[in-house]
Amino acid sequence: MWKVGGGFVLVLVVVVVAACGGGVSDPRSGDRLKLAWYDAGGLRTFAGFFFDATRDEYCYPRRWRDGNLYCTPLSHPSVGYVDAQCQELAGLVGLSSDCTRDVPEYFEQGEYAGCVFEFAMTHMFRRGAKLETTSLYRRGADGSCQGPTFAPDVEFYRLGAEVSPSALAPMSHAVTDGSNRLLPRWLTSGTTQVIDGLFDSELDVECALSPDGDRTTGTCVPSDTTFVGTFADAACDRSAVEAFPGCPVPRFAVQPETSDCRRTAQYFRVDARITPSSVFHEETTPEGTSCVEGQPTPGYDYYAMGDDVEPARPPRVLDTASGTVVQQFHYSDGATSYPDRFELYDSAHRTECQLSATGGITRCIPKSYELRTWYVEPDCSTPRKLIAVRDRACGEPELGFATERIRIVGQGVCQATLNIYSLGVEYTGPVFANSPFGCVPAEGLVFREPGELHPLDEFPPVTLVRDP
Question: Is residue 384 part of a domain?
């Protein structure tokens, strides 16, 4: 979550943002839309959103009901009726007893449509005056107006002037021609342009880069890919792909696998339709994992697993040329390089890091394990905070830190902070987990005690800036 503008929060992630070499044009701002960046001591990373100079506000790409993309200001998705006829809509903002939330400038309505249930905006309104009511009404499935529901923990606001998409900057995608396997996909508006994805010319599909388990390569995951968890055989080896009738069948599917202590993924083409009398799925219990027979899901079609495919897997290399504390990984296909879309590198702590707002400041926080509560008695009566770092058969830990998310209470703001610890000594006593199966032994795991607590200001902050 990133603080921008008047203090409201944009929920966005860093995306693929720039390219160098290979004759690919640089990202640039136009007259209306200005690129927003996070500056980490001289290293700049595209923030994933823009500044609309015409409207004097930040915005980011949103799909509207007409099927087009527009650079849309952040809006709050909660609206409800405040009258017994369900005629008057109001914006809703949840309250908290120990903090004050930022009040959004806009409220939105939208719908999920299409075979992939993609969300599309239908209406956006400016925030109007606050309403003094605690009664909320909603339309039922039969169209009747139901309520009132007493909502003391909600603030109600009138919906002000509606903002038409025609008042927003239109955006579109375009793929650069070329002979490389990976081609940049540009997000453009007027003369503004920035890379926000890639196109795999060999598989003829858009794809998104993410680092592999060994962090030295990446996989450009095809966009037209479905995950499979259903199998066509009693050994749970041959996947069966589920699809909605009448919808386009995914061209690719991915089946996760575990080998050498790492989760890997096998990609394959989706083949011809099948009509299985039984399907199978993996079921995990305290005794282990087994392949369980079941019936095909009513209303679904099934397709066989086809030939294996190999997505593009470019090398992932740390770029140290900037000389800054925060550095960037790049993927290179031999002709063009693209920044890692997920992680940066904190050279002072020698660890990969991710941008995160903690304590009101955005910092590059180390990739880390989770410090959480486990139990050291068979009845789960004695809690103990520990770090589960790996399976016992899997060598030394890969990460050097563990984090614990802490909510800031009683300071007038709704936010959380992090406690960041080094890994301490190994804990060798018994450990139990409070699970749906009861209090069960946490077998096969290696645990560490929390070590040194690091102050947040030890980790590099970033500053939001924008092109002039």
Answer: yes
